[in-house]
Amino acid sequence: MNAPIKIFAGSKSEKLAAEIAKAAGLKVGNSSIINFSDGEFEVAFEETVRGAHVFIVQSTVPPADNLMELLMMIDAAKRASAYKVCAVIPYFGFARQDRKDRPRVAIGAKLVANLLMAAGVDRVMTMDLHADQIQGFFDIPVDHLYGSSVLLPHIKELNLENLVIASPDMGGSKRANAYAKYLNAGLAICHKRREKANVVGEMTAIGDVEGKNVVIVDDMIDTAGTIAKAADMLKEKGALSVRAIASHAVLSGPANERIEASSLEEVIFTDSIQLDGVSPKIKTLTIADIFAKTILNVYNNESISSNFII
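The chain above was modelled as a monomer; its predicted structure follows.
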């Protein structure tokens, strides 16, 4: 007899967790969080999880309290005798700190992996990690899903002629090439030089974009400096239209204003991060179905590879 399945939501992913649970034919379990005046908080499950296969949905967007909340929910589930605990992390925070790119810096993604395992998590489910090698930071199973499952069908529905897929930087060229091959489209790569973190200096494009409808593909958009500058540069080089798609809408600082003022016609994200009060150019596509299918596949010990497009 299988252990019962239960889905719970962290405070930063309540809407997505509800949609995932609905798509899986389940309901979000009852949990609570009590905030103290000094900034501390306490999490609790308001129903039994004894012997249950528990899935906790929480994107670890800044601030770090959201990560701490997830860790405490994992710990609470383990101490309440849950059979298995899976952390469902649609957006994995600190993923940009995946290596030592200069002396005397932390590898934040590895530290987060250590914290999750120390809390007692049995499995991690995430989407579009900034660096694929982060999966190797864990000594437990990691299910790495892809936003392309919902983003690629949306691009096809646009029916754009003379389509070119563009990468906003050299690091994203592999992802852009995979999209271009699947869509039988052209490929362009934007080359940028950063002056410092979140500040882009000069930028140019490699590839033919004149008279083309360009879609820029990335894993996340943070301050939108790179995307906005790339869109303006591509328009100057003769692109008919420029759109952007990305899995994660971090959108910090002046991101909304930059998107609104840029040459971008629209920006499409998944709902891995809950958005409120954003630019009218921004649209979101839900990933609830793909996560619901994967959760059920994992619960039933079935393959999840059929859920991927590329």
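Helices lie at 14-23, 65-79, 108-119, 148-158, 173-183, 225-236, 255-261, 288-299.
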